[in-house]
C-alpha cells in the first residue's frame, strides 16, 4: 500500500479488525519510511446489486450517491455524519444479507425515509419531497400534516422490518 504521506510503498499492518458488520476489514498500517500511521478498508468487490429506478432503468448501487442525497436532505440540520453513514451501511448490509441482485429505488427510499423520520423530521420532509416527487404545495403540506397528527410515515410489514409491535404501540401511546 502506498503511504498517503510520503508516497512510498513500504508499510506494515499493525492491526486488523472486522468492520461494517463483517462485510469489510479495517487495517491500521504504519509506513516504514516515514513512520506515519494510516487506515485502509477492504471490501468485497463487485457484490453490490443493481438498482431499478422508477423509470425502469437500471444502474449499479453506489453507496456514495445515497450518502450524498442524505447529506443534502440533512444540510444545516443537527444530524450527525455518523448517522448518515450508519443508514447507508444498513442499506448495504441488508442488501448483502439477502444476496439480492436487484433492488428497487422504492425499497431503498422507504427504508431511508423511515430512518430519517426517526432522526429529524425536517430532513425527512426534504428527502421525501424529492423521493416522492412532490409536484405541488398541497402534497408537501399533506406530508407535513402527518407530524401534527403524530402519524408515522407508511408503516408497513416490508423487507426492512416488521410494522409496530405491541410494545412499540404501547410506548408510542405513552409518548402522546
What does this structure look like?
By secondary structure, this protein is an alpha+beta fold. It is elongated. Strands 1-2-3 form a 3-stranded antiparallel β-sheet, with no helix packed on it. A 3-stranded mixed β-sheet has the order 5-4-6. The protein has 6 helices and 6 strands, in the order E-E-E-E-E-H-H-E-H-H-H-H. Residues 155-176 have low confidence and may be disordered. The chain has helices spanning 63-73, 81-98, 105-119, 121-131, 137-148, 166-175; strands at residues 11-19, 24-31, 37-43, 50-52, 58-60, 102-104. The protein starts with 10 loop residues before the first strand and ends with a helix. The chain has 2 domains: 11-43; 50-164, no CATH class.
Q: What shape does the CA trace take?
A: elongated
Q: Give the number of domains.
A: 2
- Secondary structural class: alpha+beta
How many beta-strand runs? 6
N-to-C order of helices and strands: EEEEEHHEHHHH
Average pLDDT rating: 78
Which regions have little confidence, pLDDT < 50, spanning 5+ residues? 155-176
In DSSP terms (H or I, runs of 4 or more residues), the helix count works out at 6
Topology:
Blueprint (H helix, E strand, L loop, with lengths): L10 E9 L4 E8 L5 E7 L6 E3 L5 E3 L2 H11 L7 H18 L3 E3 H15 L1 H11 L5 H12 L17 H10 L1
Parallel strand pairs: 4-6
Antiparallel strand pairs: 1-2, 2-3, 4-5
Helix pairs in contact: 1-2, 1-4, 2-3, 3-4, 4-5
